[in-house]
Amino acid sequence: MTVYISPNPGKAMAYGISQRAAQILLTHGAQVLMQDGLQAECMTMGVEYLTQKECLERTDVILTIGGDGTILHEANLSLEYRKPILGINLGRCGFLATCEVDEMEAKLSAVARGEYFLDNRMLLYVRVLGDDSWEGHALNDVVMTKGRLQQAVDFSIYCDDILVEHYRGDGVIVATPTGSTAYSLAAGGPILDSQTKGIVVTPICPHSLA
What is the top EC class of this enzyme, as a single word (predicted)? Predict the structure, then answer.
């Protein structure tokens, strides 16, 4: 089993926890990779330091050290490699980073033995038309807002060319089940089970009495 450890440099404890995680994994027979730029901060005997691309190509599992934002960042970078991600939570509330620091020994030893199950998550495919055309994928959500405009904006939501709803307000959030616990929740949207085959459309400050 090969594990690539990716710490969030913005978290004060991230480097120390990364070294501890590496030692646990190595003790239980796993190979451990880190980016070569972290060699000074996270020097650990037995760890192999490679480029990010080499780490993503060779690893079986990505281990992030941070919070949910760290997982989202790493998921975006590693999308084409289709590698599972486990997050050690150094944030406040880990909806995605489900391994707490005091659980590292038990959970990382299980990972080293290959004893884990995969929780597959939905992605949104997004395509923006017009002069600022863009396309890509989103794990959490897509947000359409009025930008710098002072007045409310009209949004029409269609599914298979059928009008579902029309909103007037500051914007609309389209969230996956994973993203239903993020911005959409803060805007009053419901929480979906991670395996729900559906999306949440949450208006932002809609001009409506309903």
Answer: transferase
